[in-house]
Amino acid sequence: MADYTKITLDFRKTLGNFTLELNCTLEKKVTAFLGASGSGKSTLLNCIIGILSPDEGEIVFGDQALYASDSRVNVLPEKRRFGYVFQEGYLFPHLTVAQNIRYGQPRNLRNNPDSISQLLEILEISELLQRYPNQLSGGQRQRVAIARALAMEPRLLLMDEPLASLDSGLKNRIIPYLHHIKNAFEIPILYVTHAISEAMALADEAFLLSDGKITASGEPHQLLTAPSALPIANLTGVENILSLPVANSDKHRGITELEIGSQRLVIPYVDTEIGKEVPVAIRAEDIIISLEPNLPISARNILRGTIDAVDNQTLLSIDVEGYHLSVKITHEAREQLQLCKGKEVFCVIKANAINLLWHDS
Fold it and tell me: Which one of 139, 140, 266, 273 is at 20 to 30 Å from 310 when CA atoms are compared?
């Protein structure tokens, strides 16, 4: 994000018993705010776009104050010219796709077909223009909602859990479209989500929200794969994220082997070169803990590691040669296996439980 689109958030907003209190500066092209339900993500977006007014402080976009309690500045939402993509899309049911997209456009562009041609191409929705929302799939509706937000030529694009209502298959198909949007348009994006995998795939920087406050921030890969992410995984119920180099790839056998220290993690085949890092996601509940390495099971991956943390007695952090895996267990399993910090264990993971995050290849 260029300097003139730097966003300063230094404000407080109280709603009932909840208070959102922020003091941060966003300086990258795509910024993600992660947190569980009730952490303040939607309140944050509503204050930035102007639907809600903070109680005090300031919100500054570039060199323009959008809200400043000291100088009594509070720019109207329609004057801010920010695009907003909601979780459900919220298309107008009585308008066609073409009419929905044109709805938010500046008047001088509404009759110019070239003004949205790039959007239609990137989002692959040219064939949908004469359909109505009830004739679209969930993924198609979200792509149209994104196109509508971008057609207004916003200075900033706000996205409020835009993939939360979609199943994993649709999410994986839409993330590449968002990546194309990121690369094709010089528009800063603020993306709020509870899904670590989405932030890892799209964001240049990430902030973790809990109870209305920022608890950590940084580059997504470093922030979300560190041991400190254990409470975050417990809070949001999201996946482990690893970025691992390719050790071997065999198209005939349909597998790719990733290096995790001196060990190997087998995933379904990926067409990429040896040595390139591949980001993968593994849900904490998809990892089984064993005390023995040689089990008569079909799982392709058995990784040796050491327990380095136990959170709330049902979430373990396993150190696998410098990489950390969060693993969900039951109280009964913890007691039966006598799992505690420092104990050597084996992490059993099926290859089809390892999800490839979208990347350039």
Answer: 266
The answer to whether residues 342 and 307 touch, using CB atoms and an 8 Å cutoff, is yes
The string of pLDDT tens digits covering residues 285-303 is: 889 999 988 777 777 799 9
φ and ψ at residue 157, rounded to 5 degrees = -110, 120
Q: Domain count for the chain, please give it.
A: 2
Sheet holding 18-26, edge to edge: 18-26, 7-15, 56-61, 64-68, 73-74
pLDDT tens digits, residue range 234-243?
A: 555 556 778 8
CATH of the domain at 130: 3.40.50.300
Are residues 303 and 168 part of one domain?
no
SS3 80: helix
| SS3 of residue 180 by DSSP | helix
Residue found under tokens 């109870």? 211
Q: What is the pTM of this model?
A: 0.71
Name the pLDDT band for 360 (thresholds 50, 70, 90).
very low
**Strand-strand pairing, 156-160 and 82-85:** parallel
Look up residue 280 and give its amino acid: V
Q: Are 236 and 41 in contact (CB under 8 A)?
A: no
Q: Give pLDDT tens digits for 65-76.
A: 999 999 999 999
Distance between CA atoms of 292 and 150, rounded to whole angstroms?
Answer: 54
Crossing angle (nearest 10°) for helices 138-151 and 168-184: 20
List b or e across 143-173, with b for residues whose CB sees 16 or more CB atoms inside 10 angstroms. bbbbbbbbbbebbbbbbbbbbeebeeebbbe
